[in-house]
Here is the input.
Amino acid sequence: MAFPATTDRRWMWALAGFAAGLGTGLVLPAVWGPAKEPSKELVPGTASDDPAVAAATVAAEEVGAGAAATPPPVAQSPPTVRISSLVLYPIKSCAGVSVHSATVSSRGFVNDRSFLVVDFTGRFLTQRKLPRLALITPTIRVEPPSPMGPGGDVLVLDGPGVAPLDVPVTTKAGRGKGRSSQVEVIVWRDKVQAVDQGDAAAGWLATFLEQPGVRLVRMADDARRPAEPGYTNGPPGLFQISFADRYPWLLASEASLADLNARMAAEAATPTNAAGTDDPVVAPVYDMRRFRPNVVVAAAEGPDAAPLPPWVEDTWTRLSVVGARAGTAVVANDGRPDATAPPVVFQVAKPCDRCKVPTVQPDEGATDAPMVADVYYRTMDKARRVGGKVMFGMNLVCDSPVGATVSVGDIVSIEVAPAGGANGDV
Here is the structure.
């Protein structure tokens, strides 16, 4: 398939970073120039089962012993990986819900970031301002029709120390007193039509968040909010998003998170004045919840499976989830994915630049102590900074039709950036 010229922009982040002479730990395809080797001072000093991390650990120990260390080579991407977890976030910036299977909609997975908490002006609120949002676990229950009502979706709000609240989901604005109203809300620079979910939900949120005037809204069914343009194959406006930041899906790698934690351990042991102390600090250990991906991948399983090196997802351009098709996962009689079933195909748009949300503790609803957060910021600044932003995870769009389903355990075939150039055939 020949990529159009706009595909080049997908890697502008990489070119800009290296043109500026930044030292990064990003793994880039050969066509964009050789990847920079990790800085020796960032090499993890802890043991790891990952071969790439283990090699880096040996190099670090040699440096500590005064020997000349050889940085580990850049690993190649394996041909396949597997989906290790799937997570939905019914309310933007609230806790995620792990699921076994997820269904593609026109805006992302069904029930992902369909709801939003806004302030009294209609502007979106996130953990950046209200870290207690991390403590709210929203789930969706489907009520069957009954003599008591027509049934439908019920959003359950739950959090520590308070009684849960059932919120019958309102999809359309009504008329007259007491009916839900359609409102315009603001997400970054986008003005989006949404349906208010009523006073009970607003009151529950205001009490729990200790934030008067907040409201809960659901994106209107006929609302349109295009994904960020310029990084995907397709005409402008083709890919729509819910209340997610810029793209419908976010992918992250278990191997990359393990490497980040190892790097933070090494960084925490490095004396610094940045946090106001020369003393080493306790190394933070971040779990995947802090980065809020929808799709988490790990190495494929089996005797012939290749390991998944950290950060190799930087080189990916397209993912084909095999053994899944619209509405049902398909496996052969021996339990392996059926190669004749149409794959669910995702384009990799661009890396995800991170804000301060990863420094929010998911179980506490509070930000990390300054010295702990500083370790994260210093590590990311040295290892994952490009053009003034730090990167973790990859944004995706989906080329498959609405109704396609992916599941935990599905095998994902990987396409990487071509060695001959971004506009070549792959």
